Every structure is written in C-alpha cells, then in structure tokens.
C-alpha cells in the first residue's frame, strides 16, 4: 500500500504539465534551481578552484548535500567529521541571458564557504548559518561557453573569522549539529540591468522585496496589502520605473492587480518603490491553516516589464499585550516544541527534500502544537517556508550559545539577526524574533530591536529573548523549565520537560523489559560536569508520557482567562530525537515526542489531547498510554491522558470504575490485570455525559511484514534527490500491528532507487544497515529515487514471517543543471484546522482582586516587590524578623484562592497560614511546582489577606530538574538563602469565584 502523506494527491499529468509550463517563462527576473549535478571532494586541493581542474573522479551529488551527512545519528555530535571539502559545478547560461545580470544565492554553507567563478575568487561567507549571495556577472561566460563554480568549505568546530580571528558563538558542539559543506539549496538569478534586488545583505548589501499587510478588519476579511521593493539601476541613464503588483490566491486565481507610483531612478541608484491596495475577502494565515498568496511584483521601466519577483506569503494580524498573544483577533496560548534547528534525519542530516520538512513540521500540528522555537541558530529557509505551508508559528533566533557576549562576537550576532530578518520577513509563520538563548543587556536588546524596526517595522512580530523578565525593551520573554506570568508582556517558557526516553521501551512488562530510569549515561553536562542522576534521561514510554502531562499542568493552570497575570504557555524540548547534546545511555538526544524517523511515541498523543484548542480545550479526547499485548500474568497500572472531567476504564466491556485524576489530564487505574481482548477508556463531562472514547485491542501472533510508502504529494520524483519513507510493520494475520515485536527485518531495494536506511538501537544505531529491527512492532527506512523514471522495488523479509513487498513508481522531472522547478514545487498547504475561529478562545474562570498595598513588620521596604508583576524581585522577612505579610486589596471580595510564587518553588515546601480579615482560610503545606501554587481557601469575604509562615520550610526533590550545566537552580532563592525560617514571596495573587 502506498500512502502519500496528508496532502491532496496531484495527478501525474498535472504535475508534468506544471513542470513544462515552468520552462516557458520569461527569462527576465528568472530564478533557477541550481542544485543538480555537482561534484564533491572531501579533502583540500587548492587547484580545485581552477577552471581546468579535472574533477571527473569526484563524487557526483545533488544539493543540498552535507559531505558528512551519512554519519548523522551514527556518532554523537562531538564526533561528526570536520574538515575541508570542495564542491564544483560546470554549467552553461541560458541562450537568452546575454547582457543580463547574474547572481548566485546560497541558503547557507557550513561553516565557511569560499566561492570561485571560473578560477577567480568571488567572496567568502563564514557564519555557517545564514544565506548570502554574490554578483558574478563580470566573471561569467555567455552561452554557449561553459562556466565552473567551485566552493571550498570548512566546518571545523574551532573555525575563526579570517579578518578578526574571532570564533562564532553558535558553532557549538552541544547544540548545533555540524553537517558540513553545502547542506542547503543554491539558486542562480538572471535579471535585467534595472532590477529588484535580492534579500541577501551578506555579499550583496541588498534587502529585496518586502510584502506586508496593515489596516486589518478580520471580521470583514479585509486588509491593506503593501509592497516595497528595492530597485537598482545599473544602466548608464536614468529610468522611470514603477511596480505592477498582482495577487493570486492558493487556487492560482488573480484576485487583485495594482500599480505603484512612478519614480525616477538615476544610474547606480538604489530606491525603494512602493505599491498598496486594500483587498476584500482575504483568507488569513492561521494555526494549522497555511493559506498563502503569490504576490508577483513586476518592475515596469518605460512601460515595459523588465524584471519580476514572486513572494509567496500570507497575511495575519498579531497583538502582544496584557500577558497574552492575539492571532487574527483571537487569543492563542503557545504550546509546541523547542526543536533543534538542524531538524535532522538519520543518514541524511538536515539535507532532506522540502516535502519531508513539511511532513515533519506538520506532525507538530497533528500533535496540536502551534509553535516551534528553533534553538540557538537561525533555521534554514526550507523549514521557514515549510512552516508557512503547514500553519506552524515560529520563533526565529539569530545565533547564540548560552550567554550574552561583547565585542566582535556580539557584532556577529547583530549581523546574523539583520540578515535573517531581511531574508525571512515575508514569511507569515514567524511571530517571534529571539535575540538570545539567555538574557542579554538592555542595551543589546535595544540594538536588536532597532534592527527589527529598520528592516521589518510592519511585520507584526515581537522581539525578545529568554529570561528578559524585567526588561523594558523586550516584547516577550520566558525562562526555560519554569513558568512565568505577566500582566504586561506575553511570557512563555522557551523550553521545558528535558527528560529523555527511547521509543523502543514501552514499560517494564514488555520486551526488552527496560526498568524505568536505568541505563546510566555516556555523556556529561555542557560544562563538563558529570551527570549525577541519569534516571530522567532513560525513561520508558509510560514514564516519559506521564512526565509530559505533569510538566504541562503548571502552564495550563495559569492560562489566559485565569486572571490579569497569566502564562502564555511554553514549548516542550524537543519534537524529534536529535543528533545533539544528550545525557542518557544512547549517543543522541531522545527527548522527542517522535523518534528520528518521526514515528510517534506516547508523548505525542498525550500532547494531542492536552493541546486541542487555542487556549481552552475545544475537542475533548483520550489516549491510553501503552499497548494491550501482555503476558497473562501481568497486572499493572494503566494511565489515561484525557481532557474529560472523569474517565472510566473497561476491560472486555467490564467496568473497572473511574480513574484517579491528577494534573488535570492524567487518570490512573491501579492493579489492572491483563486479559486478551479490548481495553477501553470513556471520558465524561461534569454532567456525566460521554464526550470521548478510545480503545486498544490485543493483536495476534506475528505473521507477516507489511510495508507502506510515505511520499511526496503527487508521487516520488525521479530527480536523483527525492526520498520516499517506507514504514515497516510486523502484523498478525488480520493486519494488526504487533506492538511487542522486535523482529529483525532484512531489506532489499532494486530498480530506480537506492537504499538509505533508518535507525534502531544496536551497533552504530544501524545507520546504513540493510538489516534493521522493528521496535514496538514498527520502524521506517528511506530510499532515494534515481534520475530515471521507473519503479523502486522494496522487499522486507524476516524469519518465519511472510515477506512484505512494495513498489514505488517515480515521476519524470526536469533535473537539468539549470531548471525553474524549485525544491518546493507544487507542495500544497495544510489547511485542516481551518481559518481562525471568530469565537473567544477561553472562558474566564475566576476574578482577580488587585493588591494596593502590603504591610509587614520585617523588611517593609521590599513589601511591594511581592506583588509588583516582576518575577525578578521578591519580599522576604529579614533575619530574625517575623515571617508575616498582610496585603490590602482594592475592594472587599470573597477570597477563594491564593496563587503564590514562593522562592525555591520546585525544592521547598512552606507550612502556611492564610487569614482573610483575621479569619483563617488556609492551613497547610505548599506543594512544589514549576513556579506558582494555587492554594484553595475557605471562601471568605474581606479586604485584607495575611500570610504567615507556620513553621520551618522543608526541602523536597519531588521535581527532579537539572539545568543543562548540571547545576541545580535555586528557583528564586538568593545566594546562600537556605534558611528554613524565611518566608520569601516572589508574587502573590488573590481571586474570588465568578459565581460569588
């Protein structure tokens, strides 16, 4: 069975027709895919830059291609091969390109790239992250002469900038997997001598075309569409020029055309030309609704079109205030993933076809994630554009490691941010610019903000940094691991839930019977210190999924609608297992909700349940953690993740009663005895009405191998670059997956394709091996299409099982050295979630009562810091002072809840007494948390609330979190602040019920 992943299938006839049409376009202002037919040599040969150099024995490759990508997941990040590698390409310009401008664009080279054209040095790019380009007009030979482009690359971890001898902060062995050479796309642009520039500041110093919307009326589906295009005149005389704009919807229908004002551009002058028009009946880009328009900007000079560029973009409205984020006038709480920018796959690294980026990124949407925060380093354009198509919000960093810097290294960061903003400012999915993985100074924040304001003043994007909690300049913030709240800026956790766990391990009762938490570590923390306790990095799937539920609970509890100060959510680290910093028994990071081949773990489905809504849950659902294929002697705890108010469990239609609810979404059933058949969970609302249901059935004995193809929409292309994913399952006689199977599968690939492989636990992680075991009854491999149309035949055999067979037909495509068929050609958008709903995204759950004053006999000068909406300040009773503070409220209110952030929130428990107008309403010990605790009070009317420490605080290790440095964070406690007689309050809040 073939499965072309989630998009509508395009017919082969339509696909070929589109390819043919693309070849007939006007060469003025044309962009060519320059990826095909390169030669690669790993090593250094200075003569390789010369035109006469003989490269016939070099390896033939198509870009994108990292020369060390076959090592991805085979070795850990610190052992990825480094060194010099050369790439060369021989080509002819099109016959009609005489006397035109020629530019080359690289989406990125790692770490350094030196470009030579016909033996002449053109330029060097060294930051290893961002796109750059060069004007090669004067060096190129016209048709029919041949040209040679040679690129020398160096991906040394310690590479230093030639001019300054400064390294790059983000060239880091912990975070930024080192896929060397040219791992991204390359393009060639041919333009007239009066042209719209390219958005390639590095190398060209130009900013290209800027498209944005303003004056929104979301309800009426109306906005003003604005185009500003930088135009350069390289003729010897002045010209009169204007922009002609056409806007086409996703069906290709032109919905508007309009002209800009005419301007005179002098020789060698660069000028921004503008055009704008209000459009009606717009479809606004949204979460899970990747609606995009093609905005074609034609440059008209003396009444003739001389240049054109097409920007694929979407239009959406944003707002960032009152601690919340609005998208198209609807509040949205951030829930998603902090994903490594490399976003890599086994044996391929990051250099995958564009459709595989869509497949991976759309899975985040399928799990109900709405945000991906790329970590430490700017994402490559393919992933940026992919997020546009699938409707996934992005936080785009520049470059960082773990701290603020000064001098040249800070200048490098500002230059990278400048280049990234210019290159990506037309991509609607980017809502956040991140200036640092740690807090930066206010001066540096202002500098970054000025760059945003200069190059993207109208993009509707907030700029900020991690841990900018008291910044007056940043427009958003948030810590890692902990929860922050604000009535001012939106705060969302930039990464939380660091735990790791293999997909291979269901639980302790399932082969290979991995005991939860065991396995040790083969790695250290980023500062070189030893991992003292590796249990959190060697989870079973059961425990890993439950940890994800536990960690999200704190954020959901403080969501929009719960008061004036709220959390705007957070992102789980990470989405897919990554060839980067790890601390478990294996040599790669296994925090993902899917494995490296994007096979879901149970945590994927847990998030899908908890995140099903913009803020409040909109579609109740349930997921039973684990499987139902045990030995008859097994009795175990069953956990169900559900957004229902109550869950009942049935085994073979026999009720086991209601589960114990914890952390809002977790329902536990103790001592469930296995019986072959069906286990079913039914969710109910508060009235007892059934609102969701799910079940798992016992599979039979393994009988056969089943293969399923996951392909590019429209089919696999015979271009020598496209990849098909093949899912392999061990199934019973009825075709049901056998969830405990661990069979070794032997693969044989014939025809117009080659075997790439997959990953599993074993020698070298089975990278490149044609013999790979299934894990939990399933695994995946990849095959690469050849350059000839035909069939790829895959056989998968295993001892005592029926062999699985699969045939993948490949489609002919133009893969010439210069082609206008782009890597993302005809990739459709994901629109499953539909436009932004016009209804509210949350219901108010309680009424906050403002504090207007605080009195204390101990350290009165700091009393206001306990309610100042600044989590970097706090009140604490002084030494030998009385641990009591009394708050005066704005009015008399029926107080039913106290929400407090105590210092040491995850490691200290405070025995607390709370009084409302001298009446005791709470007497108990606070739980540990990721920040705030909610203390249920006896509803009492009053205007003054007094909090007292009733005894010594107690230390707790219930929440086992360790910073990546290996240090245990003090969670708001000042240095040496470990005295158990202190009451330390970071923020205090009081609430009355809605139905008072």
Task: Characterize the structure shown.
By secondary structure, the protein is mostly beta strands. The protein folds into 6 domains: 26-206, Sandwich (Jelly Rolls), CATH 2.60.120; 210-316, Sandwich (Immunoglobulin-like), CATH 2.60.40; 323-355 and 365-501 and 545-619, Alpha-Beta Barrel (TIM Barrel); 636-684, no CATH class; 702-810, Immunoglobulin-like, CATH 2.60.40.10; 846-993, Jelly Rolls. 10% of the residues lie in helices and 36% in strands. It has 8 helices and 59 strands. Helix 3 crosses helix 4. The longest helix has 18 residues, at 407-424. Residues 6-27 have low confidence and may be disordered.
Task: Report the sheet-strand fraction.
Answer: 35-45%
- CATH class (first level) name of the largest domain: Alpha Beta
- The CATH topology annotation of the largest domain reads as TIM Barrel
Summarize the amount of helix as a percent range. Answer: under 10%
Over all CA atoms, what is the radius of gyration? 29 Å
- Could you say which overall geometry the principal axes of the C-alpha atoms support? globular
Uncertain segments: 6-27
- The tally of structural domains comes to 6
């Amino acid at each position: 069975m073939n499965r072309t992943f989630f998009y509508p299938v395009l017919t082969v006839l339509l696909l070929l027709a589109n390819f043919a049409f693309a070849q007939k376009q006007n060469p003025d202002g044309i962009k060519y895919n320059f990826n095909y037919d390169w030669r690669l040599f790993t090593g250094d040969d200075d003569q390789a830059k010369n035109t006469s150099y003989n490269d016939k024995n070099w390896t033939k490759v198509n870009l994108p291609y990292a020369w060390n990508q076959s090592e991805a997941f085979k070795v850990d990040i610190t052992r990825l091969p480094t060194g010099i590698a050369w790439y060369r390409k021989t080509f002819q310009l099109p016959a009609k390109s005489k006397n035109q401008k020629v530019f080359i664009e690289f989406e990125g080279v790692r770490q350094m790239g030196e470009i030579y054209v016909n033996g002449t040095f053109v330029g060097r790019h060294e930051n290893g992250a961002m796109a750059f380009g060069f004007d090669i007009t004067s060096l190129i030979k016209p048709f029919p002469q041949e040209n040679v482009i040679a690129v020398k690359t160096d991906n040394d971890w310690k590479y230093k900038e030639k001019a300054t001898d400064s390294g790059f902060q983000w060239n880091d062995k912990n975070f930024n997997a080192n896929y060397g050479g040219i791992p991204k796309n390359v393009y060639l642009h041919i333009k007239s001598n009066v042209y719209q520039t390219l958005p390639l500041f590095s190398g060209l110093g130009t900013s290209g075309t800027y498209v944005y919307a303003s004056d929104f009326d979301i309800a009426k589906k109306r906005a003003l569409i604005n185009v500003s295009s930088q135009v350069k005149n390289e003729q010897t005389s002045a010209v009169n020029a204007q922009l002609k704009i056409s806007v086409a919807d996703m069906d290709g229908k032109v919905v508007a055309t309009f002209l800009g004002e005419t301007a005179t551009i002098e020789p060698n002058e660069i000028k921004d030309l503008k055009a704008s028009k209000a459009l009606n009946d717009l479809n606004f880009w949204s979460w899970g609704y990747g609606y995009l328009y093609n905005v074609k900007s034609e440059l008209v000079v003396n009444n003739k079109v001389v240049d054109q560029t097409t920007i694929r973009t979407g239009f959406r409205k944003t707002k960032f205030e009152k601690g919340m984020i609005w998208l198209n006038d609807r509040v949205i709480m951030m829930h998603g993933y902090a994903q490594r920018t490399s976003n890599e796959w086994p044996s391929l690294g990051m250099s995958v076809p564009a459709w595989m980026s869509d497949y991976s990124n759309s899975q985040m949407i399928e799990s109900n994630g709405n945000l991906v925060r790329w970590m430490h380093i700017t994402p490559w354009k393919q992933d940026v554009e992919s997020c546009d198509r699938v409707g996934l919000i992005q936080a785009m960093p520049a470059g960082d490691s773990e701290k603020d810097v000064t001098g040249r290294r800070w200048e490098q960061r500002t230059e990278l941010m400048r280049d990234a903003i210019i290159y990506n400012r037309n991509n609607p999915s980017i809502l956040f610019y991140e200036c640092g993985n740690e807090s930066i100074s206010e001066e540096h924040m202002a500098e970054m903000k000025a760059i945003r304001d200069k190059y993207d003043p109208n993009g509707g994007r907030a700029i900020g940094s991690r841990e900018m909690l008291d910044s007056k300049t940043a427009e958003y913030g948030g810590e890692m691991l902990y929860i922050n709240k604000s009535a001012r800026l939106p705060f969302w956790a930039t990464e939380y839930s660091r735990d790791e766990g293999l997909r291979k391990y269901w639980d302790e009762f399932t082969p290979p019977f991995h005991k939860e938490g065991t396995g040790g570590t083969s790695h250290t923390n980023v500062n070189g210190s030893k991992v003292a306790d590796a249990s959190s990095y060697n989870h079973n799937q059961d425990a890993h999924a439950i940890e994800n539920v536990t960690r999200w609970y704190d954020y959901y509890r403080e969501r929009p609608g719960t008061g004036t100060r709220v959390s705007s959510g957070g992102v789980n680290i990470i989405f897919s297992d990554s060839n980067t910093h790890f601390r478990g028994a294996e040599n790669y990071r296994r925090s993902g909700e899917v494995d490296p081949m994007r096979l879901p773990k149970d945590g994927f489905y847990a998030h899908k349940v908890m995140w099903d809504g913009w803020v409040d849950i909109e579609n109740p659902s349930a997921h039973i953690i684990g499987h139902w294929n045990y030995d008859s002697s097994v009795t175990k705890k069953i956990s169900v993740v559900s957004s229902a108010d109550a869950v009942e469990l049935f085994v073979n239609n026999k009720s086991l009663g209601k589960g114990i609810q914890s952390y809002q979404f977790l329902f536990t059933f103790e001592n469930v005895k296995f019986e072959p058949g069906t286990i079913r969970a039914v969710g109910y609302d508060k009235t007892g009405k059934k609102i969701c249901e799910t079940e798992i059935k016992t599979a039979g004995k393994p009988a056969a191998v089943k293969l399923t193809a996951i392909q590019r929409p429209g089919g696999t292309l015979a271009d020598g670059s496209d990849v098909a994913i093949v899912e392999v399952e061990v199934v019973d006689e009825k075709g049901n997956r056998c969830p405990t199977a661990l069979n070794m599968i032997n693969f044989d690939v014939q025809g117009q394709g080659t075997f790439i492989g997959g990953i599993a636990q074993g020698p070298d992680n089975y990278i490149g091996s044609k013999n790979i075991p299934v894990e939990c009854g399933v695994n995946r491999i990849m095959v690469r299409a050849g350059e000839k149309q035909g069939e790829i035949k895959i056989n998968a055999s295993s001892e005592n099982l029926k062999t699985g067979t699969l045939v993948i037909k490949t489609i002919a495509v133009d893969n010439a050295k210069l082609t206008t068929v782009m890597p993302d050609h005809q990739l459709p958008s994901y629109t499953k979630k539909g436009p932004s709903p016009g209804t509210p995204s949350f219901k108010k759950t309680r009424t906050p009562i403002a504090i207007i004053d605080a009195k204390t006999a101990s350290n009165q000068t700091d009393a206001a810091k306990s309610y100042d909406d600044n989590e970097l300040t706090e009140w604490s009773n002084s030494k030998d002072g009385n641990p009591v503070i009394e708050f005066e409220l704005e009015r008399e209110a029926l107080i039913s809840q106290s929400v407090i952030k105590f210092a040491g929130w995850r490691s200290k428990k405070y025995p607390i007494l709370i009084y409302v107008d001298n009446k005791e309403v709470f007497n108990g010990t606070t739980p540990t948390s990721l920040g705030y605790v909610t203390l249920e009070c006896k509803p009492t009317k009053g205007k003054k609330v007094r909090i007292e420490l009733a005894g010594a605080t107690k230390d707790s290790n219930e929440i086992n979190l360790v910073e990546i440095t290996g240090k245990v964070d003090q969670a708001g406690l000042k240095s040496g602040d470990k005295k158990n007689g202190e009451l330390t309050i970071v923020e205090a809040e009081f609430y009355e019920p809605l139905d008072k």
